[in-house]
Specification:
Layout lengths: L7 E4 L8 H10 L4 E4 L6 H18 L2 E5 L12 E3 L7 H8 L4 E6 L2 H9 L5 E4 L16 H6 L10 E4 L7 H4 L6 E4 L1 H4 L4 H12 L1
Parallel strand pairs: 1-2, 1-8, 2-3, 3-4, 4-5, 5-6, 6-7, 7-8
Helix pairs in contact: 1-2
């Protein structure tokens, strides 16, 4: 069964002035329909506690909750899936662990890697980037820019490819013309003066 994949993904991040729970509350109230919890600095017990709080918020608003990397926690929290950032992950093994009902996302930084993720046949969508410089998830991969995403049109891409990495509001319209399925943002919302308003503006551009 084909799973629902939103065209707009919002990611929480570690911030000095706003907790992940507060970020989730703002995003849900602003109309988010897909929230990815990204925290790589806490123990499993701390993660379970925080994810449970966020899951309650998402359930109240009817929002899809995806957690980053910690697929071993899926049977202990009320999340709809997991996004794996490890480029060398064994997605088939992960799928066996989480089952068919959970959404599984992967990451890729170039077209060959994207095609490999697609070829596994078990990944539901792929975060593809970075589009531009970002401090949310530092890496040394070349920036794709608009030209990098236009390359998607030259290949048989069937998996939903989500542009990610340093995307600003003014980039959305042009990105959606390149062949990508949707976009993911974090800092552009989380570090805005009014995060709720920023998220709404992104939705207007995407939909």
């Amino acid at each position: 069964m084909k799973k629902y994949i939103s065209k707009f993904h919002y990611l929480t991040q570690d911030l000095p002035h706003r907790t992940h729970v507060e970020q989730a509350e703002i995003a849900c109230a602003a109309g988010a329909n897909w929230l990815q919890y990204r925290c790589l600095t806490k123990t499993d017990d701390e993660l379970i506690d925080e994810i449970t709080q966020i899951a309650d918020i998402c359930d109240e608003w009817g929002i899809t909750l995806i957690i980053t990397n910690h697929y071993h926690l899926l049977d202990q929290v009320d999340a709809q899936g997991v996004h794996i950032e490890d480029f060398d992950a064994d997605f088939k093994a992960i799928r066996e662990v989480i089952g068919e009902d959970k959404t599984l996302g992967g990451s890729a930084t170039h077209i060959d890697a994207l095609l490999r993720v697609q070829a596994t046949g078990v990944v539901d969508y792929c975060g593809y980037g970075p589009f531009a410089h970002t401090d949310t998830k530092p890496n040394n991969s070349p920036l794709l820019g608009f030209d990098g995403y236009r390359q998607l049109q030259k290949h048989n891409i069937e998996i939903p490819a989500i542009a990610v990495g340093g995307i600003q509001l003014t980039d959305v319209e042009h990105l959606l013309e390149t062949g990508i399925y949707g976009i993911a943002v974090s800092a552009a919302v989380n570090k805005a003066v009014d995060p709720g308003r920023a998220l709404k503006e992104f939705y207007k551009k995407v939909y």
